[in-house]
Amino acid sequence: MTDPMPNYVRAVLALVIGPLMCICAALVIQVAAEFMRSSVTTQGHIVRLTYGKHHADAAFQTSSGERIEFPVSTMRSMIVGEVVVVRYDPANPNAGPRVDSLLSIWAFPMLFGSAGIALVLSGARQLCRLRKTA
After folding, report:
1. pLDDT in tens, 22-52
2. What is the pTM (predicted TM-score) of this model?
3. Exposure of 72 by Cβ count < 10 A (0-12 exposed, 13-18 middle, 19+ buried)?
4. H/E element holding 123?
5. How many domains does the chain divide into?
6. Is CB count within 10 Å lower at the N or C end of the chain?
7. Beta strand 67-73 with 83-88: parallel, antiparallel or unpaired?
8. Distance (Å, rounded) from C-alpha 20 to C-alpha 119?
């Protein structure tokens, strides 16, 4: 017969780490929402491919006329000269401009939140199973 302690420890770890991941996701969502509120959009373009078709450098011009380049990574292929919508903070345009897409802004909090929820659910399920067998 196997010792149920490792399963218990895994369940408790999942129930500790899962909520922490959800809290981190909530904080990142708050930062992303603030970025969405304070940022503006403009038209930019892909200036070069850096590491294949999914990694490139994009450039845009701020409302004050400053030209800014920044790295872009996407799941879809890009080509040099392609027009992209860029979202940036006009108060600090060099701080984290992003291509204005769902994944570029919300992928990290969605991933962290989903993983946190999955850990909480699996930990709770495991604890329920352990209680039934005890």
Report:
1. 999 999 999 999 999 999 999 999 999 988 8
2. 0.74
3. buried
4. helix 102-133
5. 1
6. N
7. unpaired
8. 10
- One-letter amino acid of 109: P
Q: Transcribe 20-56 into DSSP letters.
A: HHHHHHHHHHHHHHHHHHH-EEEEEEEEEESSSTTEE
- d(C-alpha 75, C-alpha 83), whole Å: 16
Question: Which residue range(s) make up the domain with 99?
Answer: 5-133
d(CA 25, CA 122): 18
What's the pLDDT at 16?
A: 94
4, pLDDT greater than 80: no
One-letter identity of residue 39: S
Give dist(CA 74, CA 84) in Å, integer. Answer: 12
